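User: structure tokens for this one?
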Amino acid sequence: MTPIAPMEALLAEQLPDGTGWQYEPKWDGFRCIAIRSGRTVELWSKSGKPLGRYFPEIAAMFARLKATSFTIDGELLIERGGELSFDALQMRLHPAESRVRKLAAETPAMFMAFDLLAIGRAKLSGKALAERRKRLAQMLEGEGEPMLLLSPATPDRSEALDWLERTGGALDGVIAKRLDEPYRPGERAMVKVKQRRTADCVVGGFRYGKSGGTVGSLLLGLYDEAGLLDHVGFTSSIAAKDRAAWTRELEKLIQPPGFTGDAPGGPSRWSTERSAEWQPLKPVIVVEVLYDQVTGDRFRHGTKLLRRRPDKAPRQCTMDQLAPPLSPAELKQLMSR
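Assistant:
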């Protein structure tokens, strides 16, 4: 079977308004297209790589369904401790089959379905989303498989905005799709709005840029409940015209230990000998940054530097700023829609 390029989304500042739109949660998991043909089940990632060996319990689940021929677009998710865990998903990408099967038994994944491209002899990708969604709901209702869930959807923009506001770290945002549109493989034919969250962080260190002459990135920290400064991420979005001034100021503040809790990791493959080393700083500078997702009490991606916060004391920069995930009750309510 040949992998299908999933339909993708354009990033927008606001959700589109008006009639004819369907809004869905943008789940914070692994995008996956599941294909079954008779006894053969294949799981494909967004990049066209096979995922079946990493999620054997999901492949087995699809293999035991009543329907024997289908193509479903959805998201792989793992719930751990009442929260969706991206870390648990990443742990599955392990070379040892024994390790993968152990994790599959301990923290089984689930498949959040949001589109049906084919079932039986019916090819649905050319049909309108409204029809595909109806057929998907019918299929899942007939299966009654607890590991196979139907993603919530609403035509109500205000409800979608509520998801965006209250879901914290559980979702990556909200997707808007036209109800009258076909499935467009590989095209950016949807609209996504991601959560925009900010945090005030202490600059606990910095790394020099590739040239080694000026600062390349600021290393960000937040204080935990024990009063220790943990490294939570970085920002490299310093304007070129400001880098020299930043460097002069930071070099005057170099003072160990910088971070008193979790410290930055080692060099990356792009590092030079000097940029690989991080410089610890006296924790006196506070900056506000824009971030998207948090994994394991760290920013998953680089953040955007918004401004300095001279009005805020470093000790006020604590972990409780980070958007919490949905509570177990809220998660259950959203996933049971």
